[in-house]
């Protein structure tokens, strides 16, 4: 065990393979705890999962989910929120119990307590069985931005200018992108039993290379995954040019 790298032809095959991993997890353990990601990268995977569910190939009725992150502050009904994204891309289309869906609270008044409660809920669920990750251009996972140390638990983050710029494409104006977010921490991610990281497109090639061939450093948060014992990278050709 350690890190496996699966190189696929393109976005569609990457998405299909990722969905098959999630389906296998839920098949082997129907009460699995899934860690879920947002962003453009996993959209295709969610589409595949919805299709598999509609074909009767997966049953989500006992599954629990914990999302990696959410903007702060943001209302759930705001179409830019990750809560909204998850409903639109997955939860509205499958038989998951809404009580078992967890996303950091973008409207929490007491953020610190809300983060502590989030970590306690993950712990009480027995930790994450399979964590799905994307990767930011600056090497962030979830919203764990480059820093001088790894942040352990769920925490409030000041987003990097680069991240705000990258995410501006989802908003009508760059000024509308929230400057802060709540993110699951590195300890929780590293305690996941299995991790699958997806990356697609030429723009991710460089960061994938840095992650695989550079040093493990909080300055490139994804680099810590080299220390996990069960990580699968699913890359498409373009994201794997330097591998
Ligand atoms: C976002 C999310 C991450 C995601 C990353 C890459 O800001 N917080 O969880 O993995 O950036 O996004 P994309 O898949 O759209 O490139």
TrEMBL record:
CDD domains: GlcN6P_deaminase. Keywords: Carbohydrate metabolism, Hydrolase. It catalyses: alpha-D-glucosamine 6-phosphate + H2O = beta-D-fructose 6-phosphate + NH4(+). It comes from the Bacteria. One of its GO terms (biological process) is N-acetylglucosamine catabolic process. SUPFAM superfamilies: NagB/RpiA/CoA transferase-like (SSF100950). InterPro entries: Glc/Gal-6P_isomerase, GlcN6P_deaminase-like, Glucosamine6P_isomerase, Glucosamine6P_isomerase_CS, NagB/RpiA_transferase-like. One of its GO terms (molecular function) is glucosamine-6-phosphate deaminase activity. Residues 13-227 form the Glucosamine/galactosamine-6-phosphate isomerase domain. Its EC number is 3.5.99.6. The active site is at residues 69, 138, 140, 145. Pathway: Amino-sugar metabolism; N-acetylneuraminate degradation; D-fructose 6-phosphate from N-acetylneuraminate: step 5/5. It is an enzyme of class 3 (hydrolase). The keyword Cell cycle does not apply. The keyword Hydrolase applies. Catalyzes the reversible isomerization-deamination of glucosamine 6-phosphate (GlcN6P) to form fructose 6-phosphate (Fru6P) and ammonium ion. Belongs to the glucosamine/galactosamine-6-phosphate isomerase family. NagB subfamily. HAMAP family: GlcN6P_deamin. This is Glucosamine-6-phosphate deaminase. It comes from Petrocella atlantisensis. The gene is gamA.
């Amino acid at each position: 065990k350690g890190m496996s790298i699966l190189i696929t032809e393109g976005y569609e095959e990457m998405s299909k393979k990722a969905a098959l991993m999630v389906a296998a997890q839920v098949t082997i353990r129907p009460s699995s705890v899934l860690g879920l990601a947002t962003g453009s990268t996993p959209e295709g995977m969610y589409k595949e999962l919805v299709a598999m569910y509609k074909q009767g190939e997966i049953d989500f009725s006992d599954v629990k989910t914990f999302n990696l992150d959410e903007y702060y502050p943001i209302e759930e009904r705001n179409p830019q929120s990750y809560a909204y994204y998850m409903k639109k891309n997955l939860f509205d289309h499958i038989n998951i119990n809404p009580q078992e869906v967890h996303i950091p609270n973008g409207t929490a008044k007491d953020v610190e307590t809300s983060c502590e409660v989030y970590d306690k809920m993950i712990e009480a669920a027995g930790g994450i069985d399979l964590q799905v990750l994307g990767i930011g251009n600056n090497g962030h996972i979830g919203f764990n931005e480059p820093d001088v140390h790894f942040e352990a638990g769920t925490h409030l983050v000041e987003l990097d200018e680069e991240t705000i710029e990258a995410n501006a494409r989802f908003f009508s104006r760059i000024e509308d992108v929230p400057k802060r977010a709540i993110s699951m921490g590195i300890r929780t991610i590293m305690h996941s039993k299995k991790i699958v990281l997806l990356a697609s497109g030429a723009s991710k090639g460089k960061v994938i290379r840095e992650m695989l061939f550079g040093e493990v450093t909080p300055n490139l948060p994804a680099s810590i995954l080299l220390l996990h014992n069960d990580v699968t990278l699913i890359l498409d050709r373009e994201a794997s040019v330097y591998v």
